[in-house]
Amino acid sequence: MWLRRRGCLRPAGCGVEELRRRRREREAALRKARREQQLISKRLLRDDAPEEGEGGCVAVILGQAEIQQFLQLAQRGTEEKERERALVSLRRGLQHPETQQTFIWLEGSMRTLVGLLTSNQALLQLEAARCLHELSHSEQSAVAEACLPATSYLLTYLSGHSSDFILCPRLHSPTTHAATVATWPKAELWGCCGVCLVPSLHHLQVNNALLITHGALSTLGLLLLDLAGAVQRTEDAGLELLACPVLRCLSNLLTEAAVGAVGEQMQLRDERVVAALFILLQFFLQKQPSLLPEGLWLLNNLTANSPSFCTSLLSLDLIEPLLQLLPVSNVVSVLVLTVLCNVAEKGPAYCQHLWPGPLLCSLLGTLAFSDTEVVGQSLELLQLLFLYRPEAAQAFLQQSGLQALERHEKEAQLQDRVHALQQTALHG
C-alpha cells in the first residue's frame, strides 16, 4: 500500500485546481491506508515460530519472579556469558504475549533494559535490542507503548555509530576471522535498533512532528548517506537489515513533515539525498529487488510536496534511470509513475524536462500492461503532461497513442480516464 494517485483524470472543463484537490484527497486516504496496513508487516530477525531454548525445549512463559531474576543476572552477573544467557532467556520468553504483559507491568523492567542497551558491552547491547525488538512487535498496544522510553536511545545510538559496522557480513562460518566475529554483532545491533524504531513508531503512534523537531529527519538522512557510501565500498550483502528500517522511518516521518520544509529539517542538500537514494536503488536492483518499493516510496514522499526535490531529480538527470525500473514489477511500475506524476504536477517548467525525451515511448509500453493500476497511473501522467505541454499530445498521436488507448476502452475502471485522454489528445 503506497502513496499513489489513482483518481480520475481531468474531465472536460475540470481545471488544474480541481485536479489537485482530487489528488490531495486521494493522497490523504492512501497515506492512512499505508500506515494501517503496510507498516504492520513483521520484519522479525527470527522465524515466526517460537524459538527453541537450550535442550530443544520451546521457550516457556515467564512469571514475574523469573523476569526479575533474569534482569538481575543481566545487570549484576559475575561473567559476561552468564549475563548474556540471562538476556537470551528473557528474549525467548518475551515471544509470548503473557510474558510481555508481565514484563511491562514490572516496575523498573524497561529502565533496566534500556540501561543494558546503552552499556558498553556489544553482546549485551545486542540481546537488549533483541528484547526490545520482541516487545515492539507485540499486537498489544500497551506493550508497544511501554517501548516509548527506548525511542530516543534508539535514535541516538543509530546516529552515533560509524557505518563501518554494517560492512561486516553476518557470517557464522567456523572459519570466519576472529576480528569479523567480534564486529558482526554490532552490525546486527545497528540493524536491530533500526527495525525496533520502525514497529515502535507505528504501534505507538508517536507524535512524528515532535520527533522531527528533535532531529529525527536529520539523523535518518545522515544514515541514508552513510548507507549509500557503504554500498559503494562493498559488495557484501546484508545491508538490507538496516536499509529497510531507515527508508521506512524516513518515509513515514515525511508524511508528517511540513510542506516545503523537508530539506531544511533534514539539514541536507536535496541533491545529496536524491543521489544517495538512487545509489541505493541501483544496489537494490542488483542485489535485493524486493526492496525497490521501499526506496521508491521514500522518493515519492520526498517529491510529493517539494519542488526542490523534483528539481534535484531533474538536474541530476535521473528521469531515464527511473524509467529503466519500469519492467521490474507492477508495484515498482506504479511507484515510478507516481514519482513522475509528482514532477509533472509541479507545472510547465518541470514538464519541459519530461518531454521531449524517452517518457512517451515508455508510457506507450506501460499502456500495454495488463495491470489496471499501472495503466491508470500511466493515463494520469499523460493527462498531466498534455495539460502543461499540449504539443506532447501531437507526438503521442504520431506514435500510435490512440491505438494504445483503445485496448482499454472496455475496462470499467479505466473507461472514463481513457475517454478523457482521447478527447484531450484529439482536441487539446
Structure write-up:
- This protein has helices spanning 16-38, 64-76, 80-93, 97-105, 109-117, 122-136, 141-146, 148-159, 178-204, 208-213, 216-233, 240-254, 262-266, 270-287, 292-304, 307-315, 319-323, 330-344, 348-354, 359-366, 372-388, 391-398, 401-406, 415-427.
- It is mostly helical.
Search tags:
428 residues, mainly alpha, 24 helices, 68% helix, 0% strand, elongated, disordered N terminus
Question: How does the SSE layout of this entry go?
Answer:
Elements (H helix, E strand, L loop, with lengths): L15 H23 L25 H13 L3 H14 L3 H9 L3 H9 L4 H15 L4 H6 L1 H12 L18 H27 L3 H6 L2 H18 L6 H15 L7 H5 L3 H18 L4 H13 L2 H9 L3 H5 L6 H15 L3 H7 L4 H8 L5 H17 L2 H8 L2 H6 L8 H13 L1
Helix pairs in contact: 2-3, 2-5, 3-6, 5-6, 6-9, 8-9, 8-11, 9-12, 11-12, 11-14, 12-15, 14-15, 14-16, 15-18, 18-21, 21-24
